[in-house]
Design brief:
By secondary structure, the chain is an alpha/beta fold. The chain is built from 13 helices and eleven strands. The strands form two sheets. The chain has a seven-stranded mixed β-sheet with strand order 3-2-1-4-5-10-11, with helices on both faces. Strands 7-8-6-9 form a four-stranded parallel β-sheet, with helices on both faces. α8 links the parallel β7 and β8. Bound molecules: adenosine-5'-triphosphate. The site of adenosine-5'-triphosphate has 17 residues, from α4.
Length: 368
């Protein structure tokens, strides 16, 4: 009987529980034993109670739970060969030879490394007497499949990552709340959202809330960004808009690669010699990750979890590690490392559609 383990790793994202539930139940449905590794790679390195056999009913009610119920962690030990060696030993001790990992590009890169090292890890375990030579046959190949769980929507090759639409919904809700008070006092708000390297959340929130101005890492602002922003805000104010909303991603940059911070934007909007707006900063922080997943992320986690189990059962030794994507509304399998490499080159947030036009549809823009 095949034993498949599932874990969540890196930053948590809404919808991870849906993915774990689907993997556990699909594995059981396919006649396999299902396991969960608690606390990400940390649990794989620690072994023991961190690796638990799961039954169908153990994941009951998980669709409507936020976060990840099996825990997640950043694990320094897994960056080292010694840590991965212990992880391999723990997998063999539990009889596990297939692993599904739900996490960001870091976690999935770690998974690919683990899989490519697997034969040499086995050799070392045999040489040191940790496992018997006769045991190796059963574990000769490690099947690994990735699921992309991240609120940032920062992996190339998939339209959406599990969790990004929940975070986006949370941001839009928060901006709506802020708008009511901003309008009442005629204030400006600089709202910082998550996204260190990827501005998808800031961009889509800007489009979805009709923000006056946005800053994202993929589109560094020109030197004249100060004038550009102030002119737009001034124009909107002249047309009667009583609120100003500027959305800034954590990783916002200018052309020289200098960070643009919420304080810099606030000082500019509040400058007595300029717009002189009563300006506040709101950092949305972990609210963006919290709470239950929206329907889309539950659906995505479930459909991709089902596909991940199929992929892990069909994986063959020669094929590269795959991850489960959604492309043009279809659940697909794609080579993992290609997507990781593309991610470093493609500015995903702005490769999509006509972002300039969408951002210009702010109410005041066309009223002249
Ligand atoms: P997020 O998008 O939330 O940052 P992530 O999966 O990219 O999620 P990381 O902190 O990059 O998060 O990675 C999570 C864990 O994966 C690390 O703590 C480490 O244990 C493992 N990992 C990441 N990169 C590697 C690597 N190159 N080799 C081995 N393990 C890795």
């Amino acid at each position: 009987k095949k034993k498949i383990a599932i874990m969540t790793s890196g930053g948590d994202s809404p919808g991870m529980n849906a993915a774990v539930r689907a993997c556990v139940r699909m594995a059981i449905h396919m006649g396999c034993d299902a396991y969960c590794v608690y606390e990400g790679y940390e649990g794989l390195v620690r072994g023991g109670d961190y690796i638990r056999r799961m039954e169908w009913y153990d994941v009951r009610g998980w669709l409507s739970e936020g976060g990840t119920l099996i825990g997640t962690a950043r694990c320094m030990a897994f960056f080292e060969r010694a840590g991965r060696l212990t992880a391999a030993k723990n997998m063999i001790l539990n009889g596990i030879d297939a692993l599904i990992i739900c996490g960001g590009d870091g976690s999935l890169t770690g998974a690919d490394r683990f899989r490519s090292e697997w034969p040499s890890l086995l050799e070392e375990l045999v040489a040191t007497g940790e496992i018997k030579k006769e045991q190796v046959g059963q574990y000769a190949h490690l099947n690994i499949v990735g699921l992309v769980g991240s609120i940032d929507n920062d992996l190339s090759g998939t339209d959406a990552t599990i969790g990004c639409y929940s975070a986006l919904a949370r941001i839009c809700y928060a901006v709506d709340l802020i708008e009511a008070t901003a309008s009442s006092h005629s204030r400006a708000f600089v709202i910082e959202v998550m996204g260190r390297h990827c501005g998808w959340l800031a961009l889509m929130a800007g489009v979805a809330t009709g923000a006056d101005f946005i800053f994202i890492p993929e589109k560094p602002r020109e030197d004249n960004w100060r004038d550009e922003m102030c002119n737009i805000v001034r124009h909107h104010r002249k047309l009667g808009k009583r609120k100003t909303i500027v959305i800034i991603a954590e990783g916002a940059l200018d052309r020289e690669g200098n960070k643009i911070t919420p304080d810099m934007v606030k000082d500019l909007l509040a400058d007595k010699k300029g717009l002189a707006l009563d300006t506040r900063i709101t950092t949305l922080g972990h609210v963006q990750r919290g709470g239950t997943a929206v329907a889309y992320d539950r659906m995505l986690g479930t459909l991709q979890g089902v596909e991940a189990v199929k992929a892990v059962l069909e994986a063959t030794p020669g094929t590269p590690t795959c991850f489960i994507a959604i492309t043009e509304n279809k659940i697909t399998r794609k080579p993992l490392m290609q997507a990781v490499m593309d991610t470093k080159e493609v500015a995903k947030a702005i490769e999509r559609q006509d972002f300039e036009m969408a951002m210009s549809l702010r109410d005041a823009e066309f009223s002249e």
